[in-house]
Amino acid sequence: MATITVIQPSMMNETVKRRVAAYCRVSSSSDDQLNSYQAQLTYYSHKFEDSTTEELVDLYADEGITGTRDDKRDEFQRLMKDCRRGKIDRIYTKSISRFARNTKDCLKNLRELKALGITVFFEKENIDTANMTDEIMITILGGLAQEESVSISQNMRWSIRKRMEDGTYILPSLPYGYTNEKDKLIQIPEQIETVKWIFNQYLCGIKMRAIADKLNNLGIPTHQHGERWMKNTIKYILTNPVYIGHLLLQKTYTADIFPFIQKENRGELPQYLIKNHHKSAISEENYQRVQTLIAENRQQDYTQIDTVFSKKIVCSHCKAYFRRKANKKNVNWVCRIHDSKADSCPNKYISEKTLQQIYIKVFNTLLSHYKKNLIPIQQMLQELKCKKYGGNVRVMDIHKEIAKLREQNHVIARLRTKVFLDESKYQEQSKELNNKIKKLQAELKKITRSDDEDDILEQLDMLIDYFEKREHMMVSFEPETFDSMVDKITANQNELTFHLLGGLELKEKI
User: Fold this and answer.
1) Are residues 191 and 143 part of one domain?
2) Could you tell me if 508 and 361 are in contact, meaning their C-beta atoms sit under 8 angstroms apart?
3) CA 305 to chain CA mean position, Å
4) Angle in degrees, 0-180, between the axes of helices 423-448 and 393-417, rounded to the nearest 10
5) How far apart are CA 212 and CA 236, in angstroms?
6) pLDDT for res 300
7) How far apart are CA 368 and CA 357, in angstroms?
C-alpha cells in the first residue's frame, strides 16, 4: 500500500527581507507642495532603515507633475517597469490621491500589480491590497480622488477667468520680445528688432520655414536659449496681436471634464482682448497685411500634411529631416536642406511609393527569418540580464543625497523669505546646491542607463510576439504597422537604413 508523507513548508523565506518601494508625488511646483514632497521623501527614506522584515529597494518621486495622467509621470512609469522586471514585492504610498486621481488608471495599475503578486499599502486610508477581497473600496476612493481633482481644477480655471475679465491676469509665460517689470510688459530692444525683421521678411515674400532657417544660420537665440527656430515659432509671432500692443487672453482652454486636455479656443469660450495694453512693436497696418498674406498662403501650403513618414526620414549627409513635397501626380520626400539649397546637400527626392515598397520588402524579409535572427538575440539578452540582476545601492544613496540637497534649498528659501538671509548670499548658496543636484542627477542617469538592455529586450519580445501572431505576408503598405515598428529611416542617394524596435537596423538599396 502506498504511503503519503506530508512535507511541511520551508521556513527559510522568513529570513528573506521583502523588497519594498515607496512612491511620492506632489501635483504642483509651489513651495508648500514641494515641502510636502520633501516630507514624503524624507519619511520613506528613514521608515525602513531598522526594519528586519522589509528593505527599501528604491524611492520613486514625481515632483510638480499632474496625477491625473500616468503617462505624464516618469517616476511612476519607472516604478511600474521595475515591478514588471521582478524587482519589487510591495509598494508604500501616502494615499490613493498620491497614487492616482483617475479611477480607471488606478484600477488598471492595481490589477496589473495584483497579477504580478505585488501589494500596495495606502497609508492615509489604511488600505492594504493584500487584504482585499474585491475592488469596491478602491473604486469608491479612486472616484472621490478623481472628483477632488476635477473640483480643484474647476476652481483654478474659474479664478483665472475672473482675473482675465477684470484685467488683473498676469501672463504665466512672456511672449518673445518682452519682459515683465511690476506686472507690465516692457520691450527687450534686441528681441523686438528681431520681431520687426521677421514681419518685414514675411511681407517681402519669404516663407516662414525659410525665415526660421535664416535665424538659425545667423545664430539668433530663441526665447528659450538652446532651442532652434521652427516654422511654428515664426507663425506664432506673426499671428500674435501682442506685437501691436494688444493682449488676447484665453487663446487656449482646458476641458472641464476628465481627462483634462488643453484645446485651442475656436469659439467654445469667450476670449478677452485688452487693447493698448503695452507699447507696440509693429504697426497695425503691417500686422493686418501679414494676416491677409498668411490666409492666402495657407491654400498653397502643401508641405505640412502629417503622414507616418513625417519626422521619420533623416538625411545621412546633413542630419536634417525629409519634408513632403506633393503635386497632382506624385508625392515625394526630400531633405529639407537640399530643398532649400540644392548645393548644400547631395541627397535628392525619394518617391513615397518607393518608400512604401521598400518597407514592405524589409517587413516580409524580417517576418520570414525572425526565428533565425531575432530569437537568438533575445536569448542572449536574457542571459545577460540574469547575470546583471540585482539591486544597486548607489542609486538609493544618490536619491537620498538629492533629497537632502533639495531640503537645504527649501530651508534657505524660507530664510530668504523671512529676511534672515540676504539675496546675494541666497543666490550663491542656491547655485552651489543646484550644481550638486545636477551632478548627482547626471550620475544617476548614467547608472540607470544600464537598464537599456531591458528596454531592448521588451521591444524584441513585442516584435517576436507580433511575428508569431502574424498569419500572412504584407501585400500593401500598412501605415499603423510601419509607425509602431520603425523608429526612423536614415536615407542617402542609394540606400535606406531602417532603424527598428529593439535597436535592429536593416539596409535596403533604393
Assistant:
1) no
2) yes
3) 23
4) 160
5) 12
6) 53
7) 17
Tens digit of each residue's pLDDT (9 = 90 or more) over 436-467:
888 887 776 666 555 555 667 677 777 777 78
| Residues 176 and 128 reside in one and the same domain | no
Q: Span 332-355, mean pLDDT?
A: 87
Nearest to 92 by CA among 28, 34, 146, 25: 25
8-state DSSP, 228: P
HSE, side-chain direction, 13 A CA sphere, residue 267: 0
Q: Residue 150: which pLDDT band, with cuts at 50, 70 and 90?
A: low
- 236/240 Cα distance (integer angstroms): 6
Within this chain, do residues 104 and 46 fall inside the same structural domain, yes or no?
A: yes
Q: Are residues 55 and 113 in the same domain?
A: yes
Q: Are residues 124 and 244 in the same domain?
A: no
Asked if 277 contacts 291 with a C-beta cutoff of 8 angstroms, the reply is no
Residues 99 and 239 occupy one common structural domain: no
Mean pLDDT on 50-68: 76
Choice between 462 and 303, residue whose per-residue pLDDT is larger: 462
Q: What nine digits make up the cell of 4?
A: 503519503
Kindly give the pairing relationship between strand 90-93 and strand 272-274. unpaired
Supply the pLDDT for residue 24: 84
Least confident of 62-66, 101-105, 175-179: 62-66
Q: What is the pTM of this model?
A: 0.37
How far apart CA 288 and CA 382 sit, in angstroms, is 63
- Using left for φ > 0, alpha for ψ between -120 and 50, and beta otherwise, residue 471 falls in alpha
Domain identity same for 86 and 210: no
Helices 189-203 and 208-218: angle between axes, nearest 10 degrees: 140
Please tell me what DSSP assigns to residue 5: -
Q: Count of alpha carbons within 13 Å of 114, Cβ hemisphere only? A: 14
Query: Range of 26's domain?
Result: 15-151
Which three cell numbers, joined as nine digits, stand for 138? Answer: 478602491
147 and 175 part of one domain: no
Residues in the chain: 510
Helix (H) or strand (E) holding 156: helix 136-165
Asked whether the bond before 259 is cis by omega within 30 degrees of 0, the reply is yes
Neighbours of 165 (CB within 10 A): 12
**Angle ∠(444,450,453) on CA atoms, nearest 5:** 145
Kindly indicate the confidence band of residue 67, based on its pLDDT and cuts at 50, 70 and 90: very low
The answer to whether the Cα torsion of 370, 376, 382, 388 is positive or negative is negative
Mode of pairing for the β-strands spanning 127-128 and 119-122? antiparallel
Cα 323 to Cα 331: distance, rounded to the nearest angstrom: 11
Least Cα distance to 457 among 338, 375, 344, 348 occurs for 375
Mean pLDDT of 210-216: 89
- Rounded Cα–Cα distance for residues 197 and 219 (Å): 14
